[in-house]
Amino acid sequence: MLKWLAIALALLLTVLQYRLWLGDGGLRELSQIRERVETLDAENEPLRARNERLAAEVVDLKTGLDAIEERARSDIGMVRRDERFYWVPGVAVQTDALERHATALMEEAPRASGASDE
Fold it and tell me: Per the record, what ranges lie on the membrane's Periplasmic side (predicted)?
């Protein structure tokens, strides 16, 4: 009788171990899900950086006239009344100045509001 009980418990243990390692919701599936999460995080990282830049640009456009003026100059070529515009053919205009300004404002925003990184 004790022999059959030991065999039944060993068989039950084997079935449970199979479900743990290879069955639905087991460790194999868990490792696949973790790999998928890492892949999606890597894909989302550039999008997060872009969103931060855009958020900084929105804050700057809402609060500062310099950003609005810079955007008007670079996007639609506006010139102030007291300025003269000289166009030089073959010279490219650098448009990354706005991005650098937005990044600088994004870095200043937590310090200015007293927020701390946690």
Answer: 23-118
